[in-house]
Each structure stands twice: as structure tokens, then as C-alpha cells.
Amino acid sequence: MLKRRNLYVSGGIFGLAACVSLAMPGSFLIQQAGPALDVTGDIDGVELVTIDGSQTYPSDTSLYMTTVSAYGNADFGVSGAQALGALAVPEHELLPVRALYGEEESADEVDERNAQMMTSSQDSGTVAGLEAAGLQVPMTLIVAGADEGSGAYGKLEENDVLTSITADGTKTEISTFSDLSAVLGELPAGQDVTIGFTRDGTAMDTTFPTQAFETDNTGWDQPGSRLGVYLTPTDLDFPLEVTYGVENIGGPSAGTMFALAIYDELTEGSLGADAKIAGTGTMSYAGEVGPIGGIRHKLVGARSEGAEYFLAPATNCSETVGFEPDGMQVFSIRTLDDAIAATEAIGSGDTSSLTTCEQVADDSPESD
Question: What is the value of pTM for the model shown?
Fold first, then answer.
């Protein structure tokens, strides 16, 4: 009888411990598709993108920014029961909390960082969209640091303000980010450039060779060259007012769709006819599309809104293959110009000139 009683007691303790473990927060979180929002439309009467101070044009094209929703945060993971349940749902992805957040990060710090990245994506998306539409956005470019292996290292210092670039005997004043990127886009790596700058209010200049861009994960080499410095744009002087009605969404991945929507609104006609087009990607001040996370979930979210086309950063293409929702075409983009051209092709009904993500993935070194 005593042995049987001990067995019952042990079993009860084990069962209680199991119940507690299923109910208590764990070390995993769940990611799934978040809402896809038409940035050319509104939410409860609030326009997601509003432009004042310039002629704008109505468009029939729907352009969806895509998001990822998460259960759990940097402070607490989901319960054991929720984690087990997620394993049975194909649309749910179970991830270790520490795979996304550092041990010292709090949920509040992550939220603050994501909010800052959203603000930054709105600024860079606005700049890229306005300049694609033919407007200029003057700004100040401040050096935040330099790569140790670059020619700029030891010559340009933190807080230096760039004022000009001279290449092949031609001097270009730097008043916008595109002033700099346009020159560098035509220069081969290793060519000497002279950079004019101010340091503590004193005008100076220095000469050093440019460097090549790193080959990306698709095997692509970006044309032109770079200085090898990190720049912080400040004092942005927008020629018109662009405001955003996006709330409670963080991160930088909507930049491309913001830029595309701004360009569409500032140019006549409907860029993509009446198509529903979703997409994602960071957007640089130079109009370059960058990689993001959670793209498989974003495809699902886009399809839930009826989008038949998706614009994906080329460097994310390998993650989309085999996960394309039925009836959806996923096209690769590297720049805002690519996104504009793809949207126009979709609107024309002829996408034969576009590159699909499957083609990019097939040609990348990762597929060998």
C-alpha cells in the first residue's frame, strides 16, 4: 500500500509540474502573418499616406505593406501549451526568444527601437519616393564612422560633414544623398576621390580610393563603388509634407511600399492599373531595397487581402520559394526603380520582362 501511495504522490507531483509548465511563460515565441495594409487607402477614415503641398493624382492601384505578428516578447515567451499548439498550425512559426532578442533587451526597449526604425523607414521612403518623382530633398550628411579596411578610415572622422565629392576632375557639391550616390554609382572600385568636408566648422578635404560593394547572397555585385563610411542624414528639408497614419506597427520593412505609394500619388495615372500588389523591403536614401525578416508570413498576409503579386527584396528570394500562395507571383526587386518598373509591368498585363524570386534563387550560389 505504501509503494502504491508513493506512486500516486509521485504521479500527482509530475502531473502538477506538467500543468504548471504548460501554463507558465516559456522561452519561445510564435510568429504568424500580420495584417496587410493598403498604403494608398485608409484605416477608419485616416489615410495611411497623405501628401500636402503638391498636386497629387488618384490611383486605382492597391499597394499593400505587409507585417508579421508575434505572440510573446523579449520579456516573456508564450506558455508551454501555446508552444505545443503552434506545432500543429502550419502558419505558425515557433522561435526561441533569444534568437530574436538579446538577453539584456526588454520588451519596452524593443518597442522603442522598432518605433525608431519605422520613423526612419518613413523618412528614407519619403526621400526615395519624392526624388523618384523628380523632387529634391536637401539634407546634411554626417559621418558616423568608417570601415577599418576602407580608404576613408583615419581620414574621415565621426561628426565630419560631407560637402563635396570630386572624381575624374569633376567636383559635385553634396546637398542631397543622391548627389553622392549618383557619382559613386558610376565609379569603379579603387578609384581615387576627393571628399570635401567640414570638421568643427573648418573646411577640409581628403583623397582616398573607393571600395567595392560586397557580393550579396544571390551572387550579385552592385555596380559602382562606395566610400566605406557610415552616414547619418540630418536636417532633411522636404519640399512638401508627407504624413503617415500607421499606428502600432514598428520596424523598417515598409519603406519600399511607402516610397512606391508616394511616387504613384505624385505621378499621373494608376501605376499598376487596378492590380493588388503587396511587397516588403527596407528602403535606403539612395533608393536601394534591403532585406527583411518574416517574408513567408508576409506572403500569407498579402494573399489574405487578395494580392496576386508580391515584390520581394532579391536577397530574401530564396526564403519565398515553395511558400508562394496559390495564384501569387513573387518578383525580385533591388531598387525603387525596379519596384516602379515591376508595378508598371503588372499594370500593363505583361510581366515577361520581370525576374521572379524563383529565378533568382535558382541562379544564386546557395542553390549549387
Answer: 0.89
- Could you tell me the domains of the chain? 33-68+79-134+239-367 (3.30.230), 140-234 (2.30.42.10)
Task: Report in angstroms the alpha-carbon separations of 66 from 18, 98, 181, 278, 299.
Answer: 38, 24, 28, 7, 8
Report which residue type is found at 190.
Answer: G
| pLDDT grade for 250, boundaries at 50, 70 and 90 | confident
The distance in angstroms from the start CA to the end CA of the chain is: 66
User: Amino acid identity of 77?
Assistant: G
Cα(121)–Cα(123) distance, integer angstroms: 5
pLDDT, tens digit (0-9, with 9 covering 90-100), for 140-167: 999 999 999 999 999 999 999 999 999 9
Coil, helix or strand for 287?
Answer: coil
Question: What does the angle CA 65 – CA 66 – CA 69 come to, to the nearest 5 degrees?
Answer: 140
A 10 A CB-CB count for 132 gives 21
Question: Tens digit of pLDDT for each residue in 345-354?
Answer: 999 999 999 9
Q: Which residue has the cell 538577453?
A: 103
Residue type, 51: I
Strands (E), the chain: 28-33, 37-38, 42-43, 46-47, 49-52, 62-65, 68-71, 93-96, 140-146, 161-167, 170-173, 192-199, 202-209, 229-234, 241-244, 276-279, 282-283, 289-290, 309-313, 329-333
**Which amino acid would we find at residue 208?**
F
